[in-house]
Design a protein that fits this description.
The chain has 6 helices and 4 strands. It is of the alpha/beta class and 129 residues long. The protein has one domain. The protein has a 4-stranded parallel sheet, sandwiched between helices. The longest helix has 8 residues.
Length: 129
Amino acid sequence: VQLVKTADLDPRKNYLIGFHPHGVLAVGAFLSFCTEASGFPTLFPGITPHLLMLSLWFRIPFFRDYLMSGGLVSSEKESASYVLRKPEGGNALAIIVGGAQEALDAHPGSYTLLLRKRKGFIRLAIQHG
């Protein structure tokens, strides 16, 4: 996984980042935003990355706390909004645009991006500037 810096990010603002492809287990997104494997902290100092994850995983006692300790956030709109509206800024919320449905279409050598019915993240970005 290699992140490429295309612009400096102001640590006083919050950001919504789209990630593609989902893949079978979203390993690329996890490594990029929940570990230091991709060099995210070096590329974007002062920005704390968070990754949205299917909300059903947050219903399991103790596992929820484990997920949150790794920077994962429930994919419910309220949870995403909570991260994006923090007034002090310094947060990057990553969303795997195609979601779980895109994961089911993951096949070696093909990249299927599902966007037709997945535009809520754009509304969320506009609402939170």
